[in-house]
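Narrative of accomplishments. A recurring question from our advisory board has been how the design workflow behaves on a single, concrete structure rather than in aggregate. To address it, we present the structure tokens for one chain from the evaluation set, followed by the sequence designed for it. No filtering or post-editing was applied between the two.
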């Protein structure tokens, strides 16, 4: 990895692939990327996708073990979602949602509300997860203003939290890589101890540690509740900080603490929603409902950009007024796009028709069993699993570990993108028996090569 790589020498790609890669490097500024690294790190040309697999122009395949940045639930080019989109294309592609409405957005809103048991009955749409977080923060701030509590302007998040990279979302993010450069542009926020069970004392259970962290939240709000609008949490799994997992006890206690101090609870389920943690919504495992629920990623099955913020009736009512300035004056040009909503409805249909959560429980157990040798590998630490998410740390002193692991995984037909020294699996729900065995065995082999 110390010399510049050649795409053609790396995997024998065709002239067509070489040309595409050169064009991409010249014209496309890729996200979350130091572009100079592509002098050494392979840029992968993707020609098509099918199920769990991505294929390049020579037919070489890659098991999408991270669901293309955590969005793909039911495989690439899913025939049922494809069919739903084709049918919608013949009726309506988009119409502005200010002053207009359409069937897909109404039906989707109703079905999502039912999925919360009616606790969150009002849906506000955007295009991506960071935008959803921005909306939830603004709604909370504006709610307190409308309720004659204008001093409640600050937000609290967990240490190591990630909520997006727009300025508002970045303000409640606590990952230095993303935040430090832009910190002078962001509003101030507070962070409290993360209930990440890896940080528990020896002999302390994940549940007890979660309770101890909730006490830290309580102490913070005792001092600052008059100025605090909301606590925002990634329920059960904090993603970008390294798949930090915590016990549902934290959510139970946080809900009670927020109620006691009149602080909103925002559940950022952009990554963990739609079955990723084993239940349809992660907060269900704590038996609570948040005041705001942010959803995106798997919402459309990984097809089209769409996000939604779901809010309680009391929040909605605080904006319902003859005074225009008391309304929530936020918009996106493609809010509630009909095609994206139709993809989301097709995704929900698959959940209903295929008993996905039940099937996922069996797949989760199977992959965990297949990864037994991996979990026991001498270089592996903190092997852990929540629902359809697995993660572990690799004992390595190599600062280039993630880069090398990614490249060598591609050589073994695996698409894996470590977060520092944390390797994780988050495969599409359509992963099969043979693919599970391949993922587990080849990852184990990789540990001896990196």
């Amino acid at each position: 990895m110390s010399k510049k790589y050649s795409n053609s020498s790396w995997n024998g790609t065709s002239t067509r692939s070489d040309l595409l890669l050169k064009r991409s490097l010249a014209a496309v500024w890729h996200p979350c990327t130091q572009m100079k690294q592509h002098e050494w790190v392979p840029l992968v040309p993707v020609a098509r996708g099918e199920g769990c697999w991505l294929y390049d122009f020579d037919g070489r395949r890659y098991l999408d073990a991270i669901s293309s940045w955590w969005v793909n639930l039911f495989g690439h080019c899913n025939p049922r979602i494809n069919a739903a989109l084709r049918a919608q294309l013949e009726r309506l592609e988009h119409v502005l949602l200010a002053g207009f409405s359409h069937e897909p957005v109404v039906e989707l809103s109703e079905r999502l509300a039912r999925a919360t048991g009616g606790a969150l009955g009002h849906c506000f749409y955007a295009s991506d997860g960071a935008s959803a977080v921005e909306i939830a923060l603004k709604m909370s701030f504006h709610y307190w203003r409308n309720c004659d509590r204008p001093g409640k302007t600050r937000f609290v998040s967990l240490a190591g939290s990630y909520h997006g990279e727009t300025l508002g979302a970045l303000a409640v993010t606590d990952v230095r890589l993303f935040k430090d450069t832009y910190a002078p542009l962001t509003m101030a926020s507070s962070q409290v101890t993360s209930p990440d069970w890896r940080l528990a004392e020896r002999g302390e259970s994940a549940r007890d540690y979660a309770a101890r962290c909730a006490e830290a939240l309580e102490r913070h709000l005792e001092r600052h509740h008059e100025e605090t609008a909301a606590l925002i949490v990634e329920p059960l799994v904090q993603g970008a900080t390294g798949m930090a997992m915590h016990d549902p006890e934290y959510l139970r206690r946080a809900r009670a603490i927020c109620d006691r101090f009149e602080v909103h609870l925002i559940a950022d389920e952009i990554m963990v929603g739609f079955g990723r943690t084993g239940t349809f919504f992660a907060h269900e495992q704590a038996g609570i409902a948040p005041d705001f629920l942010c959803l995106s990623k798997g919402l459309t099955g990984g097809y089209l950009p769409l996000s939604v913020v779901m809010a309680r009736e009391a929040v909605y009512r605080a904006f319902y007024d003859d005074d225009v300035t008391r309304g929530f004056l936020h918009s996106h040009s493609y809010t509630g796009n009909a095609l994206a909503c139709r993809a989301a409805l097709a995704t929900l249909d698959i959940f209903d028709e295929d008993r996905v959560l039940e099937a996922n429980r069996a797949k989760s157990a199977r992959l965990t069993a297949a990864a037994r040798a991996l979990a026991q590998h001498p270089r592996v630490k903190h092997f852990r699993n929540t629902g359809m998410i697995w993660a572990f740390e690799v004992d390595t002193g190599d600062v280039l570990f993630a880069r090398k692991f990614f490249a060598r995984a591609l050589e073994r037909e695996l698409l894996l993108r470590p977060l520092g020294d944390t390797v994780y699996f988050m495969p599409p729900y359509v992963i099969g028996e043979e693919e599970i065995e391949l993922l587990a065995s080849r990852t184990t082999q990789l540990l001896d090569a990196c």
